[in-house]
Amino acid sequence: MLSNDVNKLSKIQLVQFDLDGTLIDSLPQLWQAVNLMLVELGFAQAPKQAVQHWVGNGADKLVERALTDALGHTPSEHEQQTARASFDAAYDSVAKHKVVLYPGVFETLNQLKAAGKTLALVTNKPYRFVPDILASAGLDEYFSHVLGGDSLAQKKPDPAPLLHVCQALNIAPEHSIMVGDSENDVLAAKAAGMRVVGVTYGYNYGRNIADSNPDWVLDNIEGLLDLLK
After folding, report:
1. Of the residues 18, 20, 88, 185, which is catalytic?
2. Is 215 a catalytic residue?
3. Spatial distance between the Cα atoms of 203 and 72, rounded to a whole number of angstroms
4. Sign, Cα dihedral of 65, 70, 75, 78
């Protein structure tokens, strides 16, 4: 589904991408890490769909949601810190294994680069995990700037990461577009004064990305090529 006037996209110079649920399907590794954490802490494993609905606001929120579900109440600060350390160790062991890209990702990134677009990555995933995941997926050479969820004091849905990338690359927000699968991406982009594409195949807490009112909704990332040609 396309909405809005695509002619305004002819001046887009910078395309900022989310990672999980947009470029890679990281749910298998996140699910495995959450369950390794839960088992280590003495809890039952969580179903895959539950973990899918918990993803999107960074590792702290993922751990908090998993722990709240297991405990039946909000964890204490000590419980949260203990669980987060366990999760980090577990995710370190599985994050870069068998990383799966969504259909059309390589083709889209290659054609955008060939068309002279600058590409950046803005994820809420802690930065420590990002370089190895990108290298494992073969994506490490595509992005001129990469931010993790802890690279700045703020993370999406705050617009600060998107604006930081614009400033770092000396490209105005109105000449940038954000591509993601979550309402966090939509809210951050709109607050930053840039257009936003929502992809339907990601996570978004189990909700339809169209409900977050991105400027465009795409079922396949290759639809970007038609938008930005």
Report:
1. 18
2. no
3. 24
4. negative
pLDDT 10s digits, 125-164: 999 999 999 999 999 999 999 999 999 999 999 999 999 9
User: Six-digit token pair at 145?
Assistant: 């700037």
Nearest alpha-carbon partner for 155 in 85, 58, 59, 64:
58
Q: For residue 206, give the nearest of 55, 47, 26 by alpha carbon.
A: 55
Residue 19 has pLDDT above 90, yes or no: yes
pLDDT averaged over every residue in the chain = 94
- Does this model's pTM top 0.85? My answer is yes
CA–CA distance, 9 with 86 (Å, rounded to integer): 44
Hey, what are 15's tokens? 């395309």
> What's phi and psi for 176, nearest 5 deg?
-120, 155
